[in-house]
Design brief:
Blueprint (H helix, E strand, L loop, with lengths): L6 H6 L25 H4 L4 H15 L19 E2 L27 E2 L4 H7 L10 E12 L2 E9 L9 E7 L5 E8 L10 E8 L5 E8 L5 E8 L10 E3 L17 E2 L5 E2 L5 E9 L3 E9 L5 E3 L5 E3 L5 E10 L15 E9 L4 E10 L4 E4 L10 E2 L6 E8 L4 E8 L5 H7 L1 E2 L1 E2 L3 E5 L7 E5 L7 E12 L3 E5 L6 E10 L25 E7 L7 E9 L5 E8 L13 E5 L8 E8 L2 E6 L4 E6 L11 E6 L6 E10 L4 E3 L7
Parallel strand pairs: 3-24, 6-40
Antiparallel strand pairs: 1-2, 3-4, 4-5, 5-6, 7-8, 8-9, 9-10, 11-13, 12-13, 13-14, 14-15, 14-16, 17-18, 18-19, 19-20, 19-21, 22-23, 23-25, 23-26, 26-27, 28-39, 29-38, 30-35, 30-39, 31-32, 31-38, 32-33, 33-34, 35-36, 36-37
The structure holds 2,5-dideoxy-2,5-imino-D-mannitol.
The site of 2,5-dideoxy-2,5-imino-D-mannitol has 16 residues, from strand 3, strand 7, strand 17 and strand 22.
Length: 648
Amino acid sequence: MDYPSSIVAEASNTEHAPYTPLQGQPSTVGPPTKLRRPLKVFSVTFASVIFLLSLVTLIINQSREPLPTPNKNPSPSTPKATSFAKREPRGVAEGVSAKSNPSFFSDGVSYNWTNAMLAWQRTAYHFQPQRNWMNDPDGPLFYMGWYHLFYQYNPDSAVWGNITWGHAVSRDLIHWFYLPFAMVPDQWYDTNGVWTGSATLLPDGQIMMLYTGDTNDSVQVQNLAYPANLSDPLLIDWIKYPGNPVLVPPTGIETDEFRDPTTGWVGPDGKWRITIGSRINETIGVSLVYQTTNFTTYELLEGFLHAVPGTGMWECVDFYPVAINGSQGLDTSANGPDIKHVLKASLDNTKVDYYALGTYDPVTDRWTPDNPKEDVGIGLRVDYGRYYASKTFYDQYKKRRILWGWINETDTEEDDLEKGWASVQTIPRAVLFDNKTGTNLLQWPVEEIESLRLNSTDFEEVLVEPGSVVPLDIGMAAQLDIFVEFETELISDSVVEEYGCSGGAVDRSSLGPFGILAIADQTLSELTPVFFRPVNSTDGTLKTYFCADETRSSKALDVFKQVYGSTVPVLEDEKLGMRVLVDHSIVESFAQGGRTVITSRIYPTEAIYGAARLFLFNNATSVNVKATLKIWELNSAFIRPFPFVDSN
Ligand code: DQQ
């Protein structure tokens, strides 16, 4: 097999055809009012005012009353029964976190999805396989001009099982080529699954891929693999080390609680270290440390890199340095006085990725959190939305650390089987330490996404009055890169209020919520608000929450919908700003330059194709808000099989 020479140019060509909807799409609703300049906000027609007022009255202007939800207004489509019996989620019996959402209706009803609805859910610029199930990102790396992404994949079905390593390559982290599977479960030590793992690039050019195998008797062991041909930039063929497994569960560790080895890092003694997540005494989440010089034999160090009581089994541990004052990422082995270390664990019990910042002592091989109250599993989340099993790698080409994360489904397994695929990866994000706050990371979509930008629309200082919704005339609203800054009136005698995200966008307080309504239809029967909620808290400070409310994102009853979010640090003199990437059924939202991030997976039934719209809203009871926006329409990425040429 040869690689066509044109492939490099082709891979970075951004002149692609826009996303093409399938036949049978719903007809679009009428055009919204043009609102390119603030004056035009006030030039809406009488009918529009009446329309908005009635919307406000009907939908928004009900202090602390829930908005109509799909549960209260079921869609005319009749739910259909399926033959699935109630059962525990996939994965749990095999000793990993839940990998499916069995229907929560006892009779196994499924929404009456049409092909058009299901087809629309496929993303246009997020990475997802052509079909079937995907979960964790594995072993990401940059090699000879190509970014490599491996992923947990079921070649046979849209549900978790037969876990194999899918493999894709990209020149720019945006356009991808699917390659042949890197590893399949074909050995006694991984026959129940080639599970999650990480790559280590050695200084002599070798690549060590460590991964968890689930053996023929369901024991979790660690295995080594390496490329068959290091002169192949695509790293197509992988050899499993004949001496596998290289690690088995040590004494005191359950045989099904020992998985997901990290990338290695070198200590001052020249030895490599890796860490592996586990659990002890039923409830203490831990990370074991091993030393090695050759990646085939290992010494288990006494104690743990870190342990946190009450957090349960740690999956997919990630451990890496960040520069305290720097705008570049760091190699995993970097350490020194101007460096902090991030420890991340994916909590098996709750399916949430938590991280903490701290200090790593390479002599004792212990990590200590900066703030024990914000320790791993009890403090900061990597992403407050539907997000799990994340993993970073150091991109030595652009000197940055890139974060991948798995966006899991919140529909049912029955729905996934019907649409023929499950899960998406987030847009890769560059990760930096936030040296303004000193307390958190910053995550930001990789700059290469800007190559997808098409036309943009600007809106300046759009006034959004308390209790109002303002349509934004931007044409297609399904593939967007949105930047919004909000300015609010100063209120002198603000009351102290106890609000957060949990009440959602309908929970009105004096200073919020306000934000955007993404993937909304013209009548607002479906919408996904992404919003800020400033709150005067009892300690006299102004706290700001950043939230995403999925509760009315779909009329489908069998889809799990939640309000996500948390506080976001806002420094004096900073405006409130969010960036939101919309890609059909994915809404990735970044507040204050990426201090707090929320990913939503949504399943609209009405707000699809040309009917998907974007609005501003302000549901505060007392403050006016002015919004300034720049919105790009985004092109679709090329994500397709690698065009091998047969040399015979
Ligand atoms: N997924 C893998 C495991 C890991 C889990 C199995 C996290 O290695 O612990 O597919 O989603």
